[in-house]
Give the backbone structure.
Amino acid sequence: MVNSNTGKKTLGRRRIEIKKIEKRSNLQVTFTKRRIGLFKKASELSLLCGAQIAILVQSPGGKIYSFGHPSVEDLINCFLTADVPPPQITDDEAVMRLAMEEWESLELHQLEEYLEALQTLADKVSEKLSG
């Protein structure tokens, strides 16, 4: 679809109205994408600023997802007992461990949706490079 005002082939990123999503499939896809984005931003904040972060999210289906740096359990225990904060983990191996925990928490259909989105992106990039 070509936008006649600018000559662009797509409408690009557009602001969406923030309201409850009624369609179950759209709700699940949006939840998954936004949860991954939230965890990615939390990871970036932790790495850039040395912040210690714990996030718990309950999906519309009732499943609990978590992200923590250095770990959710350590930070929750620190908060509940008012102990000294746990030591910071800054090495690459720890970052990879956190990323793997995030991926391992995904369900098969979520991984398939992500793979499909990556394939679509790869196809679009290929089109731009060849066209």
User: Anything to note?
Assistant: Residues 54 and 71 are 7 Å apart (CA to CA).
